[in-house]
């Protein structure tokens, strides 16, 4: 049997909180109930706390930590462990996304997190020049932490947190000349990677650079993504263009030369080709090389993710059915696909050229009929 009491402090005074003492596996457990000692006898809330603890012990259930003591860093670690156990999220991506959350919320008790804390975070990130879509995704990760904490019994209720609006979709895309200019300033292996991204709209970090050699079949002329390795968990198979086939054959030759130099098998299609301890390991990123190439090509500020918009636009303009294009790029819903189908000024100018040819009755596209119109 357990009981409630007010322990004596070092100062000689009694605690201002009621504490509970009960036994678990024969060992005494002492825990604050969190109920203020306003009366001489324990109030109902303190007695309920003790009965709940005794009930869990009697039924063999684990004693959960006090919800009001759980801090942000505890639930952040829980979510990372969950992703690691389920392989449902790239851990490097998770670490990057929570970096700003960790700086803002470390030490905060999650039971006390509210809209005021979220609003302060939004304003701080906006002051750093971060767009609404990025802030929404960061706060989405925070929401997942809280939801998992609720499922684990570490949070008694889920707070209703409002996020900033998504904002208009980014409209960056590469014209052919811009893409070729940037590609010329990259190393040979990265030229192959950006060619795949430009042609098929695959995600650079999680899909292109993560490719293994076994996913390439040069004889069949295919490149595939395994089910579960993509953002929507669906596998994909694409047939290679002649340009991609030639460039990928050259990349395989570079990897084979690396294998001979290292004396071991290199499974990655895009490994580090240099010397040192990273040689042969999969490429993690090339942000610095990318920024340098864009600056040298005269298009600073372009993003590798712009290749997805570019590929969607190019395929649709080439007459590829939208459903087929969605299968190639991996867009699962039409709404998201439409956000990536950007119309460029060149597209609008092309409409004007075609209409000019239609209305003038000329056969040559874009030709203007300059013959005067005789009055009736």
Care to describe what's here?
The protein is mostly helical and 376 residues long. The chain has helices at 44-58, 72-86, 91-105, 115-127, 132-151, 176-184, 188-200, 204-208, 242-262, 287-297, 306-317, 322-329, 334-340, 345-360, and strands spanning 3-5, 17-24, 27-36, 216-217, 222-225, 236-239. 48% of the residues lie in helices and 8% in strands. The strands form two sheets. It has a three-stranded antiparallel beta sheet with strand order 1-2-3, with helices on one face. A three-stranded antiparallel beta sheet has the order 4-5-6, with no helix packed on it. The longest helix is centred in the last third of the chain and has 21 residues, at 242-262.
- What's the CATH first level of the largest domain? Mainly Alpha
Annotation field: number of helices = 14
User: Largest sheet, described in full?
Assistant: 3 strands, antiparallel
Q: Helix coverage percent of residues? A: 40-55%
CATH architecture of the largest domain: Orthogonal Bundle
Which shape, going by the Cα principal axes?
elongated
CATH superfamily of the largest domain: Intergrase catalytic core
Give the CATH topology of the largest domain. hpI Integrase, Chain A
Rg calculated over all Cα atoms: 30 Å
The helix-strand sequence is: EEEHHHHHHHHEEEHHHHHH
Strand order of the largest sheet: 1-2-3
Which key features would you list for this structure?
14 helices, 376 residues, hpI Integrase, Chain A, 3 domains, DNA polymerase, domain 1, mainly alpha, single chain
Produce the secondary structure layout.
Layout: E1 3-5, E2 17-24, E3 27-36, H1 44-58, H2 72-86, H3 91-105, H4 115-127, H5 132-151, H6 176-184, H7 188-200, H8 204-208, E4 216-217, E5 222-225, E6 236-239, H9 242-262, H10 287-297, H11 306-317, H12 322-329, H13 334-340, H14 345-360
Antiparallel strand pairs: 1-2, 2-3, 4-5, 5-6
Helix pairs in contact: 2-3, 2-5, 3-5, 6-10, 7-9, 7-11, 11-12
């Amino acid at each position: 049997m357990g009981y409630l009491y007010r322990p004596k402090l070092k100062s000689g005074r009694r605690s201002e909180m009621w504490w509970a003492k009960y036994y678990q596996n024969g060992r005494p457990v002492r825990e604050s109930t969190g109920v203020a000692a306003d009366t001489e006898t324990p109030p109902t809330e303190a007695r309920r706390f003790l009965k709940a603890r005794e009930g869990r012990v009697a039924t063999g259930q684990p004693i959960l930590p006090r919800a009001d003591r759980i801090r942000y860093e505890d639930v952040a670690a829980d979510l990372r462990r969950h992703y690691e156990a389920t392989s449902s999220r790239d851990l490097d991506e998770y670490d990057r996304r929570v970096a700003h959350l960790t700086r803002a919320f470390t030490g905060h008790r999650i039971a006390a997190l509210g809209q005021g804390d979220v609003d302060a975070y939004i304003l701080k990130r906006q002051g750093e020049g971060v767009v609404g879509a990025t802030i929404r995704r960061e706060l989405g990760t925070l929401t997942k932490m809280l939801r998992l904490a609720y499922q684990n019994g570490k949070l008694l209720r889920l707070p209703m947190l409002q996020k900033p609006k998504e904002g208009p979709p980014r409209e960056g895309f590469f014209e052919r000349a811009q893409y070729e200019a940037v590609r010329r300033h990259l190393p040979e292996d990265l030229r192959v990677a950006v060619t795949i991204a430009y042609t098929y709209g695959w995600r650079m970090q999680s899909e292109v650079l993560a490719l293994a050699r076994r996913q390439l079949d040069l004889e069949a002329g295919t490149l595939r993504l395994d089910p579960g390795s993509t953002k929507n968990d669906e596998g994909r198979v694409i047939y290679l263009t002649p340009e991609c086939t030639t460039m990928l054959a050259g990349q395989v030759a570079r990897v084979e030369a690396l294998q001979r130099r290292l004396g071991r098998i290199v499974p990655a299609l895009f490994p580090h080709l240099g010397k040192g301890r990273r040689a042969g390991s999969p490429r993690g990123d090339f942000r610095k090389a990318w920024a340098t190439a864009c600056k040298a090509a005269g298009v600073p500020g372009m993003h590798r993710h712009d290749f997805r918009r570019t590929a969607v636009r190019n395929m649709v303009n080439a007459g590829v059915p939208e459903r087929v294009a969605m299968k190639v790029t991996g867009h699962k819903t039409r709404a998201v696909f439409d956000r990536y189908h950007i119309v460029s000024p060149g597209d609008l100018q092309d409409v004007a050229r075609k209409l000019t040819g239609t209305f003038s009755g000329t056969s040559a596209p874009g030709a203007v009929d300059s013959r005067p119109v005789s009055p009736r």
